[in-house]
Amino acid sequence: MSPSNSLKSDVSLTHPDRLYWPDEGVTKQGLADYYAEVWRFMAPYLVNRPLALLRLPDGIKSHQRFFQKHAWKGMNAHIEEIADPQDVDGEKLLRIADFDGLVALVQSAVLEIHPWGTTTGHWEKPDMITMDLDPGEDVAWDAVIAAALDVKARLEARGLAAFVKTSGGKGLHVVTPLAPKAGWTEVKDFAHSLAESMATDAPEKYLATATKAKRGGHIYIDYLRNGRGNTAVAAYSTRARPGAPVSMPLDWRELHDVTGPTAFTLANVPQRLQTRPSDPWGDFFDAAVPLD
Fold first, then answer.
1. Are 174 and 162 a contacting pair, CB within 8 Å?
2. How far apart are CA 164 and CA 148, in angstroms?
3. What does the pLDDT look like over 237-265, one tens digit per residue?
4. First-to-last CA distance in the chain?
C-alpha cells in the first residue's frame, strides 16, 4: 500500500521488507503505509493513552509473542514511558504522542494496539465505554449484529451515544464516548449492569459471565474492558491473525452489509478509504456526555 497523503515519519524502518503476515504478503513497510493512511482517523484513540501492545518479532507465525505494558530493551525513544499515578512500585506504562510513535510501534513488531479507555491527561476519568460482544462458536453473525443493536438501544435510552466497529477477531465492539467525569468504578459498574440486564432479559441469547461451559449458542457481553488498566483493541488497529484483519469503525447503516468480524483487512482497506473518505466516527467525541 502506498500512502496517498504526505505523512512521513522520522523513524527509520530496519528490514522494511520483513513479512509480518507472510500468507498475505504484508511487510513491515506495508503496515507503516497502512497506518499513514488511517492516522488522521486513528489518532484520537491512541495519542496519550496508556497502551498494551502485542509484539510478534517474526510476524504472526512467530513462536515469540509478547503482550507488553512496560518498556523493553532497545525500545525506540518515540515510545514514551509514563508513571502510573497509582503504581506504588513506580513501574512505568507506555504511550505515544504522535505518528512517529506509531511507526516506532511498527518497527518494534507491534501488530495489535490495545489502549486504555482514558488518556494520561485524566487517568481516573474514562472517556469511553467499550462493550465487547463475544459470540460462541455456533452463534450466527446476524445474531451478533442484533446484539449490537440491542446495546445501542439501551445506551441511547440512557442518553448516551453508541458507535460500532468490528473487533477484527470474533465479534463487534459497541463504544460510547464519555465526558471524563465519572471514575473507573462507576463506569465499570454501569457496563456491568448493562451486560446483566441483557443476560436477564434474554438468557437464551446472552451471558454476562465468561463461563466457557455455558458459551454454546450465546454471546458473552464482555464489560470487563472498562476496568482500570484493562484495554480493548484500538479502532483501526490490525490484529495478529491470519488474513491481516483490522478493527474497523462502521456507520450503523452499513452494519448489515458487513459479512463478519474480520471483513476488513489490510487488503481491502484502501478501497474502503477511497469509496468512503469520511470517518464514520468523525463525531465520536462531540457526542460525549457525562455518565449520570
1. yes
2. 8
3. 999 999 999 999 999 999 999 999 999 99
4. 44
**Residue partners of 286: CB distance under 8 A and separation at least 6:** none
Digit-coded pLDDT (tens) for 126-180: 999 999 999 998 999 999 999 999 999 999 999 999 999 999 999 999 999 999 9
CA angle, 119 then 250 then 172, to 5°: 75
Q: Maximum Cα–Cα distance for the chain, whole Å?
A: 54
* Short-list 280, 276, 245, CA closest to 263: 245
**Average pLDDT of the residues of the chain:** 94
> Strands 249-250 and 80-83, how do they pair?
unpaired
C-alpha cell at 167: 473487533
CB burial of residue 22 (10 Å; 0-12, 13-18, 19+)? middle
Query: Phi-psi bin for 244: left (phi > 0), alpha (psi -120 to 50), beta?
Result: left
The one-character DSSP state at 239 is: -
212 pLDDT higher than 70? no
User: Are the C-beta atoms of 164 and 130 separated by less than 8 Å?
Assistant: no
Residue 26, helix vs strand vs coil: strand
Indicate the DSSP class of residue 12: P
Residue of 238, 216, 11 lying closest to 108 (CA atoms): 11
pLDDT digits (tens, 9 = 90+) for 9-27: 999 999 999 999 999 999 9
